[in-house]
Amino acid sequence: MDAPIRAASLRFTRVDPSRWPKVVRTLVALGFNAVDLPLVWREYAAADGSPDAARLAHDLAGLLRIVADAGARAVLRLGPWPVADVAGLGLPDAVLLDPAVRSHTRRRNPRWVSDHLRVVPLPSLRSAAYNTAARAWITAAVEAAAAAAPAPGVIARVLVGHGAPTLLRDAPDDLDAAGLDPAAVDATAAEADAAREFLLGLAAAARAAGAPAGSLRLAIQGDPLASVAAAQLAADEGLAWSALPTRAGVRAIWRDARLATTLAHGHHLDLRAGHAPLEAPSRATDALDVARVALGAGARDVTVLHGCAGGDWVGAILDEQGEPRLAAARWQSLLAWADALPEGAERSRRIGRDPAAIARARSATVFGALPLAWLARWGFSLDEVSAEPVGADAREQAAVAAGEAWAPAFTMDDQTDPAPGVSLDPAGAAMVRAVDTAGGRAWVLANVGGAAVAATVGGAAHALDPGAVLVVQTEEQTGG
Amino acid sequence: MADGTTRWSGMDTRSWARLVSLVAPGMAPLPPRHHARDGSLPGGLLLVAHDGTRVLRALHTLRGAVATEGPWAGRETLAALAAQCDTRFAVALRRDAAERFMERVGGRCTTADDAVDTTLLALGVLRELIDDGALDVLPSPLRSVPLPPVEVVRAAWDRVLPDGHSAVIALFEGPALVTGLALRRRGGVIDQVHGVESLRAWSGPLGGDFRRDHRVIRAAVERALGPVAVGLFAPEATVLDLLRAEAPGGWARAVAVRDVMVEPMPPWAAMATGVSALRAAADESRRWAFSADGWLAKTTRKVIDLAGTVDLQAVLGFDPLAVLGVVLRESRTRPTQPDEPA
């Protein structure tokens, strides 16, 4: 098994290049083993919107050399809309304002998304012009990175797709009607088809340009457990998505991160240190709590946005001069704790959903066109907002019936573990996962409630404080 | 206003959360375990979906699904559900509300719209949805506050912060500068916004008494950003109390006794706080002691003249501080912010 990726992002275009080596060294000293480099198309665009290959090559050569010299690896985040804190969705104006690129509502009005305090037109994932331009950008960026890599293996991950959580779309009734007859199509199916084809097109461009084998992850906007496209793509591709924010609560954060352990082709989860200035405020301790829950739930490959933002961000781990803020020491402790988490075969309940069931649930949302991504950020799952909830996962049930998967002895929904080894206070709200390690079985328990929970693991009693994550190693191999 | 070109700098999460939650206590960050949906905590936001006759779903941010069906009778139903959840903030959406909002905004926005245009347009559409019965909000400042035209907002904005000028807020807890903001308007937009880290770096070591430190901070901001049009320096707790105070005249008294320093104090700020009338009255009463020229008439005339040019309430049609106070008094108390790293 590859080493986990613990990356911190560096918004390098906002930081004086003379500080890049120091910032990378500081992040590595804090315990990060990779540096996430968001490449913003808008910042590397010629006047006609085409990628400026010379600048890309220059900057990537310097950055990848610095990362390699620090003993770290690089995560390249290519977008085209890579992170939330970019102007104009990170797209060149020549692309963003091109009428052929825009998506439309059912009544042929433009669809807008927020861009700081303004709105900008949302590109249509179905637009041929947008797909062509986006693939050209991905090709140019990957070719430049591949040529600039100082050694094999420096580029650990290449993330493609719209990585910023969008709050004004991604709802089945808010159909992107560009190029469609809205009355003749199923909105959910059309949306999923567009997202899947867009992402597969970007992935193909990246592979053709020389992205290292196994490095690609396709970025999913919104809750991947509520995405038909994510469920379909997971069969063949690795996925990347953003962990839910603090206000989604421990339960939703745990559930979201548990998906990471069951994806056959890999995952990459974005955590947060701070937030964009116009987002709801979050404290450093709360961001650390979210990260602890996500890592405890089993996420192995993560990026903390932002390690160093150089401005236009509230509360990055390093300040604008590259000096650690006070919370940096706590991130260092958390990373050390994460390194000690058990590694091995996941034996807990699988997370996965049938795309058809997701599609039915999405079509039956009671809030109409209110974006599911927005609702997810308040902790509302698809099941809660749909008249036809997905419920138990059909694929999981089939796998259990066929004896292919370990019986789902643990649930995510407050039920007591019937298997020997762990018992939980039935009245308490706790979640648990099991990992078969080389030395036996380890149990990871999270308390999702507001009161302490009693747990018995291997005969020993434990109390879980609210929000805490407890790891218990046992010598005896049980179950399986 | 701010846009995509605005440079944000020097902000840590602790001080920023304190500043935002002063005027929006519901936005105060809480740990993930707080959102455990155990049903024991007051507050939160209630979201109700209905089809005009039936409640389809009621979701509460701290309690999850609280209703899955029932009759819908308008605001009374929303108020009852909110009371059941022990919250004062609730939104009800008819099933077609979000799509109507997107269609109407989509049909009216243009790429040339700036932040003022966009904000007023969105608020206007929300008000239409309220009038149509597609949207209900508790409490509802949108119902009582008139929406001024774009030109009026721009004119007011020009008076509040003239182009090329900066504004600063510095709030203290004891001797420590705990949160603050400095911003500059240039070329018609806010081009720079700085947090407390920048204020500390520009000001250097402070004495610990905001009544003296305000001069140092103001001078530092003027060196870094240009002339300061308005500055507010005060203990954080004092501002928190004043924003929630129901009795009129609180700001005027606080400024008069230097519990709050407003330096410099432009005419609009004097009017907004009621200080100008107080000062004018004091000045005129001194003169009246030496002459029997009728101070009341002179003072009244002066205030009316001043109001004609700088009274934001008269310009906008509502008192922004009063509206904010109504909302804040409906809000839960801002949760205490435990000590934590920035």
Please characterize this protein's 3D structure.
The complex is a heterodimer of chains A (480) and B (342). Chain A has 13 helices and 17 strands. Chain A is α/β, with parallel strands linked by helices. About 5% of the residues of chain A have low confidence. In chain B, strands 1-9-8-7-10-11 form a six-stranded mixed sheet. Chain B has a five-stranded mixed sheet with strand order 4-3-2-5-6. Chain B is an alpha/beta fold. About 8% of the residues of chain B have low confidence. In chain B, strand 3 and strand 4 form a beta hairpin. Chain B starts with a strand and ends in a 12-residue tail after the last helix. Classes of the chains: A alpha/beta (480), B alpha/beta (342). At the A-B interface, strand 5, helix 7 and helix 8 of A face strand 1, helix 1, strand 2, strand 3 and helix 3 of B.
Could you list the spans of chain B in which at least 5 consecutive residues all have pLDDT below 50? 282-286, 288-297, 299-310
Rounded radius of gyration of chain B (Å): 23 Å
Helix content of chain B: 40-55%
Task: State the total count of DSSP E strands of chain B.
Answer: 11
What portion of the residues of chain B fall into strands of 2 or more residues? 15-25%
* Proportion in β-strands of chain A: 15-25%
Assembly level: heterodimer
Shape of chain A: globular
Series of H and E elements of chain B: EHEEEHEHHEHHEEEHHEHHEHHHHH
User: Could you give the order of the helices and strands of chain A?
Assistant: EHEHEHEEHEHEHEHEHEHEHHHHEEEEEE
Largest contact between chains: A-B, 76 and 67 residues
How is the secondary structure organized here?
The complex is a heterodimer of chains A (480) and B (342).
Chain A: E1 6-10, H1 20-29, E2 34-38, H2 53-69, E3 73-79, H3 93-96, E4 112-115, E5 118-121, H4 128-148, E6 155-160, H5 187-209, E7 216-219, H6 228-233, E8 239-242, H7 249-258, E9 267-272, H8 284-297, E10 302-308, H9 328-339, E11 345-346, H10 355-363, H11 372-376, H12 382-385, H13 394-401, E12 422-424, E13 430-437, E14 440-447, E15 453-457, E16 460-464, E17 469-474
Parallel strand pairs in A: 1-2, 1-10, 2-3, 3-6, 6-7, 7-8, 8-9, 9-10
Antiparallel strand pairs in A: 4-5, 11-13, 12-15, 13-14, 14-17, 15-16
Chain B: E1 2-9, H1 13-23, E2 45-50, E3 55-60, E4 64-67, H2 75-84, E5 89-94, H3 97-108, H4 115-132, E6 135-138, H5 141-144, H6 150-160, E7 166-173, E8 176-186, E9 189-194, H7 196-203, H8 210-225, E10 228-235, H9 236-244, H10 250-256, E11 261-262, H11 267-273, H12 275-290, H13 295-310, H14 312-316, H15 320-330
Parallel strand pairs in B: 1-9, 2-5, 7-10
Antiparallel strand pairs in B: 2-3, 3-4, 5-6, 7-8, 8-9, 10-11
Helix pairs in contact in B: 3-4, 7-8, 12-13
